[in-house]
Amino acid sequence: MRIVVVGAYGLIGSYVTARLLADGHAVVGVGRDLTQARRRFPGVDWRAADLRTASVADWAALLTGADAVVNCAGALQDGPRDDLRAVHADAVARLVEACQATGARLVHISAAGVAPGRIDPFGATKQAAESLIAQSRIDWIILKPGLVIAPAAYGGTALLRALAAFPLAIPAVHAQARVQVVSAEDVAAAVATAIRPDTAPGQSLDLVHAEPVALDDLLTRLRGWLGLAPAPVIALPPAVAAIPARAADALALLGWRSPMRSAALQQLRLGVAGEAAHAARLSLVPRSLNQILTAMPSSVQERWFAKAWLAKPLILATLCAFWLASGLIGLTVSRQAAVALLTSADMPQPLAQAFVVGGGTVDVALALLVAHRRTARLALLGMIAVTAGYLAGGAVVRPDLWLDPLGPLVKSIPAAVLAIAALALLDER
């Protein structure tokens, strides 16, 4: 069969894609940024499309000759890179029209707990899409996974691993919130069954294991799975968690899509619940949390990831503050001293002034660029290059500074190394 997978390189989409390829299907992968996706899945026919802007005609062209389309795309919260109404509802409306025109079956991935009456933006837009699909005349199946657990981690599941690996104690908000889990492989298996022509259409099915797990229990089990020493769970009041949530909301304006945003806290407060019996209609018995964790033993790479995940924003914030302070101080407080340092090495006054002002301006620019997700990689490379330039220039103009007790040249090396570490951690998926 020829299957179109929308959002084929996301957490759920990548497992769906892998399963469909393993089953021998021809897969057409659809997404916005395909450079890395093409490397990860060379056997997929990749097509670029943006759900926010793709027209009915665009979707119809992509679905021509396809037996089914699996929509794995979604977003958590509105932001510069995400529009919940556009992605969850408007795009689905156009996709439904394209399915009606081409006859392709639509398998739509929603979320457990989405039901009429949800007023939060995530739940309301998800419900709007479900209602639109259910009222259409196309061949459709809606799958509603619970909290998806997978060997790979992204978004909320990455945050859970990071919290589980927190030193000394595990911080948790809404520690008694109940969630029902499902493995990414079970979701992919459900999709593999849902696309088959002999599977009855017109079904909306939850995909969850029957066991509700409290958040504090989930975090404790994840810590044990990581192989870390036991630690107590510290229940934090929602008001405390609201502070980093608001900060994460603000950072979203710069392109950073953190799972610590306020929408994630709201979803956590609501819990994740569904009807475990639904999966039987697809001849599927979802695995429990213990079964999922047992089937994917952790190693050092999981421990590294969990420990480094929360360090990543700290590293980026430190670099931003360091380069901003360096630039501003160089342009104001220590400007004349820096010029005098260069002129003492027989550099002409105008050239020394230009070097100091130019260097300070570059430092400030790099600090501002690293704060924005889209330009962060370029800024980190620039920090490494500029540091190398400072060191080389200092060695030529004032080599005695290498022996300075305060070490102005030596101290710049750790900043460059920190930029290298940030580059290694920069990828989001």
Describe, in short, the structure shown.
The chain crosses the membrane at residues 309-331, 351-371, 378-397, 409-426. This protein is of the alpha/beta class and 429 residues long. Helix content is 51%, strand content 12%.
Describe this protein's structure.
- With 429 residues, the chain is α/β, with parallel strands linked by helices.
- It has 2 domains: 2-309, NAD(P)-binding Rossmann-like Domain (Rossmann fold), CATH 3.40.50.720; 313-425, no CATH class.
- The chain contains 17 helices and 13 strands.
- Strands 3-2-1-4-5-6-11 form a 7-stranded parallel beta sheet, with helices on both faces. A two-stranded parallel ribbon has the order 7-10.
- The longest helix has 22 residues, at 349-370.
- The model has no long low-confidence stretch (mean pLDDT 89).
Features:
seven-stranded parallel β-sheet; alpha/beta; DoxX-like; NAD(P)-bd_dom; 51% helix; ComplexI_NDUFA9_subunit; Rossmann fold; 429 residues
Q: In this structure, how is the largest beta sheet organized?
A: 7 strands, parallel
Give the SSE order as H and E letters.
Answer: EHEHEHEHEHEEHEEEHEEHEHHHHHHHHH
Gyration radius, rounded: 26 Å
CATH class of the largest domain: Alpha Beta
Approximate shape: elongated
Instruction: Please provide the count of β strands.
Output: 13
**Class by alpha and beta content:** alpha/beta
What is the overall number of helices?
17
The poorly predicted ranges are: none
N-C termini distance: 28 Å
Average the pLDDT over all residues and give the rounded result.
89
CATH topology of the largest domain: Rossmann fold
- CATH homologous superfamily identity of the largest domain: NAD(P)-binding Rossmann-like Domain
> What is the spatial order of strands in the main beta sheet?
3-2-1-4-5-6-11
State the share of residues found in helices, binned by percent. Answer: 40-55%
Proportion of residues in extended strands: 5-15%
The number of domains is 2
